[in-house]
Amino acid sequence: MTSLSDDLQNLTITEDLQLHEPSSKTKHTISPRNPEHNPLYILKNVRKTQNRPAFVAGPMVRYSKLPFRELVRNYNTDIVYTPMILAREFVRNDIARSSDFTTNDKDRCVIVQVGSNNVEDLLKFVEMIHPYVDGIGLNCGCPIKEQVREGIGAALMSEPDLVASMVKAVKEKYGNTVCIETKIRIHPNLDETIAFVKKVEASGVDFITVHGRTKNTRSSQPANWDAIKLIKETVSVPVVANGDCFSLEDAYSIAEHTGVDGVMSARGILSNPALFAGYKKTPWAAVEFFWDLATSYGLPFRIIQHHLSEMLDKVIPRKSLKEMNETTCLIDMIDWFDTHFILKRRGDKGFATATEPSWKINREEAAHI
Ligand SMILES: Cc1cc2nc3c(=O)[nH]c(=O)nc-3n(C[C@H](O)[C@H](O)[C@H](O)COP(=O)(O)O)c2cc1C
């Protein structure tokens, strides 16, 4: 078994990586990956150097796009996931490729999450995407019926041999040049979960994320941190705990309870992207920064609106939130913000630092709009 530093020295960094878009004939280039952005390096090093777990923003369909990833990194998030991308569509469909994944040089450390039910699609997916990401995450937890019916996501929890063969195929082809993770749920029977993680570990997986719920547990029910602890005690690869991290304090409590190497937040970081920097609710500066990122990178209007709705839920009065949610296009929403708030543009000197909204009228008045 090689040590982490050996592993990192053995990483091959490809020069001048290129992504071709056959439809537009546009050629993009992106710089080589930096070994310090390898998720394994982060999971081990953050604990050593900062005496804390690594902070991870989980995959969220529709939401974890490039602007949101950049936003959360500005607030102390170490590892950020893309939404789940279906391998089958990605490898066959040029349009799916450009709509599902965009990246840039600042997008590090990024793990692309993949939904797949077979080795062949997975290998093709990894071949296409690995130069542009720091890790590949195999989704073994998505409970959505359409995916499960196709044998994707949580369906894989009943297919330990298949998961092991998928991980093994990637490791046999790429060795330590590709970091592969599996994001799993727990089984009601913990012995079955333990057998699952042992098999996946033996197949060469680099680390495991455990969402402490079964595929039928609702998100309103608490995540099972004891089960995560048991898994952490069972395997020797790093483990990331997921479920119910809504504040920095939660992140520390989860890490202390389970002994994990990293803590992942999804709903918590969606509503407060500055969670891992210790903010109790979204600071206004994050709202302004998100506006800049979303409009300059070009997120669709409805997604911007959903993000802002989540981020502002605890920040502005309910009535104002409702009004913002009722705007029907980007221009209307910009007008609405311009009417109610003084937005400080970032310019070249970084983003605004305000923690409270800068209302154009005072807050008490605003509460009665
Ligand atoms: C809007 C939304 C989209 C999600 N999309 C994905 C996804 O693409 N892949 C995945 O593995 N989990 C997905 N999840 C599940 C989260 O990653 C996470 O496992 C779950 O929400 C529990 O974490 P939390 O308690 O921090 O929210 C999604 C969750 C939400 C709320």
TrEMBL record:
Keyword Nucleotide-binding in annotation: yes
Catalysed reactions, as listed in the record: 5,6-dihydrouridine(20a) in tRNA + NADP(+) = uridine(20a) in tRNA + NADPH + H(+); 5,6-dihydrouridine(20b) in tRNA + NAD(+) = uridine(20b) in tRNA + NADH + H(+); 5,6-dihydrouridine(20a) in tRNA + NAD(+) = uridine(20a) in tRNA + NADH + H(+); a 5,6-dihydrouridine in mRNA + NAD(+) = a uridine in mRNA + NADH + H(+)
Organism expressing this protein natively: Scheffersomyces stipitis (strain ATCC 58785 / CBS 6054 / NBRC 10063 / NRRL Y-11545)
Single GO BP term: mRNA processing
Gene that this polypeptide is encoded by: DUS4
InterPro entries (alphabetical): Aldolase_TIM, DUS-like_FMN-bd, DUS_fam, tRNA_hU_synthase_CS
Swiss-Prot/TrEMBL keywords: Flavoprotein, FMN, mRNA processing, NAD, NADP, Nucleotide-binding, Oxidoreductase, tRNA processing
Binding annotation for FMN: 59-61, 113, 211, 266-267
Region (Disordered): 17-38
Name of the featured protein: tRNA-dihydrouridine synthase
N-terminal signal peptide: none
